[in-house]
Amino acid sequence: MSAAPTSAAGRIEIAGAAIRLGTGTAAFEVVRDIDLAIPSRQFVCLLGPSGCGKSTLLGALAGHLGLARGRLALDGQPVAGPHPERGIVFQQHTLLPWRRVVDNVAFGPKMRGVGRTERLARARDFLALVGLADFAERYPAELSGGMQQRVEIARVLINRPRILLMDEPFGALDAQTRLMMQELLLDIWTRLPTTVVFVTHDIDEALFLGDRVLVMSARPGRILEDIPLAFPRPRGRDLVTDPDFVALKRRCLDLLRPRDGQSPLPRLTPLGLPLQGAA
Amino acid sequence: MSTAALDAPGAALAAPPGSAEGRRLGRAAGRSALPLRRLATRAGALGLGLLAWHLAASHRLDLGPVTFRNVPAPAEVARAAWSLAQSPKLGAHVGASLARVLGGFLAALVAGIGLGLAIGRSRLAGDLLLPPLEVLRPIPAVAWIPLAILMFPSSEASMVFITFTGALFPILLNTVHGAEAASPRLVASARSLGAGRAAILREVVVPAALPSMVTGAAIGMGTAWFCLVTAEMISGQYGIGYFTWESYTLQNYDDIVVGMLLIGLLGMGSSVAVRALGRLAMPWTRGGRA
């Protein structure tokens, strides 16, 4: 099957959504009044200051966090719990260290009961897609951070998700590798189009990748501005010096400028509150 | 699916920056042989220990609170060891002890890992199991002897039980620790890839806890040998622990030390074997970081 369109549409609808974290008196509202519709196969970037709840919202889309209020649906079906059709790529270190790269990628098919030969062959195809065909037999720890994230992407895409959720997936990479990964991601996305929700606090990254940028406010996170991006694709690096790009960047910088007396908040994760100690 | 459909847009990108930075792989044998110098130092340390022992015993050194007057010298111990080595009884002693230690150890492995995983992953299991286990934990092996005799119909089973009590807790506690430490992110991403409860346990929790389990097993193997003399006080005829205890009651001081050294060597050897098996079971911890 050639570049088979992903099964279903991948429309996201969020209405009046609020998410609370913490327990008892320490509980607080991370995001509130989120109303949002994302059409099929749109590439949406969630941009916001650290701790604003953009990762929290992503965690709710993935099904790892529940809503306190409101509604969240994929193709009309309410989101309830994690599911391979809503694939999520974390910032780092979520490959299984005890599985070879190819077995990591074959994990989803294995969970679906696909036979060993077939799932390994399929995993090799997806490793080739992210340019890592030669690293199939390695263990994740033998790969660089950028290569690990590529494996991560292959491991999620092999499940043919309706939506691809990415939580600052290139945030832990050096600048050079990050740029390379952005281009690779766009390249893959044109081959296997899915709805993408991409969380980042890097303005350039959001503007370079997205069809649309949603700028979020500091906590409690709300959507401040919904900016459509009409830059033609395929996009090249010279885009970042385009006057329109620069103008939009200035607008985002303005929106993200901390208000007086606001101190930066700790980063939240798609799984809720940050874990003590663990990076 | 055909490979052609997906032919690698990333392939061109793969070679330059990716692989360059990925080349710290180094399957370098992490634990190759020690350099000769350090081996010599270690052998020398053993030699010095022996020499000190020899001098103290042959000069019947008396330091007041501790005296070497009745301690056999290395040469006498070596003679006793030699005569034991000649005797057919050695095989029977070692075989009986090995069987008891292995029996107790394997039972502790099964129980410790099973209970440890349950406690580490389920709050209810922890609340149910931890309080009684914490009460049992400080009880020394010696104190179990009467009850072990009463509880088990055969003395063999009661000896195995006593080595079991020794090995259980290190394995159990390390497994609990390892299972609790399984990264929530790994669990969450596995769930997002379609893993259910059983698959999470099999694919994530158990491998994540494996290094702790191996550590616990190596320590547990040591404590099982530690309890051997206690266990074999019950024994009628065979076992290194029995041999040691019997030599004491017969005032065969050379043989006591032979028995002690044998237990030490066998205990050390089996802990090393457990660690080696553990490394075999965890190929991802060889080379690289991990």
Description of the molecule:
The complex is a heterodimer of chains A (279) and B (290). Chain A has helices at residues 54-62, 101-105, 107-111, 116-129, 145-157, 175-191, 203-209, 243-256; strands at residues 12-21, 28-38, 43-47, 69-74, 77-78, 86-89, 163-167, 195-200, 212-216, 223-228. With 279 residues, chain A is an alpha/beta fold. Chain A has two domains: 7-85 and 161-279, Rossmann fold; 95-159, no CATH class. Mean pLDDT of chain A is 90; it is low at 1-6. Chain B is mainly α and 290 residues long. Chain B has twelve helices and no strands. The model of chain B is unreliable at 1-31 (pLDDT under 50). At the A-B interface, strand 6, helix 3, helix 4, helix 5 and helix 6 of A face helix 1, helix 8 and helix 9 of B.
What distinguishing features does this structure have?
heterodimer; A: 279 residues; alpha/beta; Rossmann fold; 2 domains; six-stranded mixed sheet; four-stranded antiparallel sheet; 8 helices; 10 strands; 30% helix; B: 290 residues; mainly alpha; MetI-like fold; globular; transmembrane (chain B); ABC transporter permease (chain B); membrane (chain B); MetI-like_sf (chain B)
